[in-house]
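Lab notes, practical 5.
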Amino acid sequence: MWWCWLLGGLPALLLLGVVGPLRQNTAYHRFADTRSCCGVPNLMDVASNAGFAAVGCWGLASVPRRSPTFVVWTVFFAGVALVAAGSAYYHWDPSNRRLVWDRLPMTVGFMSLFTAVLYDCTDLPAAWLHPLLAGLVALGAWSVLYWHQKDDLRPYLVVQYYPLLCMALLLPSHENTEDRALYGGMLGWYLLAKAAEALDRPIYRWTRRAVSGHTLKHLLATVATAWAVRTGCSTWAPPL
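Output from the prediction step:
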């Protein structure tokens, strides 16, 4: 599997070593749907985070304790549930200061999912599982704090996209069809979510102001997590 790390790591190395600091564009905070209701600003982008809380709690209740990855998936679903609070807080009044609380729990989700992928799709020794989880989650949190202090997005972008790229490289050659269904489905739904995010304003126009791309991103990312719960139940615990 060394070639996966090589191909996946090249863009990360180029981003960190060749590209200069990437600052957060303040235009990012200007979302398409700014409608308010009942005193709640940006209602749709705030309220659509409720799905993260629901599916996060569902996941926490679904992971079997006898699973070798119980702690990993528990951290993942806890991170997803916390995204609901952090993202709602951010979308109430979007700014860099509030965005920190949106991105911190997101990195918990990215890094714990990456840990699960490495355990299921490589020859990672079981003894490394929890130390790796702790190290990757700490790295994810550091990437957000580094951006907040230095206004440089490069480490955060690596933390978000390097795991996705490795997943895309690892899954086609992975023999376990259940793992491919689990992680492939999550990857597909999340990529749709990122596409919707990029098309925030066009989607808002195409739907005649019914829903914006960013709201749709929240809903699709919730589906990606629900896919993990629904599909992962058959893979998380070994047979009794």
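Observations recorded by the TA: Residues 2-7 have pLDDT under 50 and may be disordered. DSSP finds ten helices and no strands in the chain.
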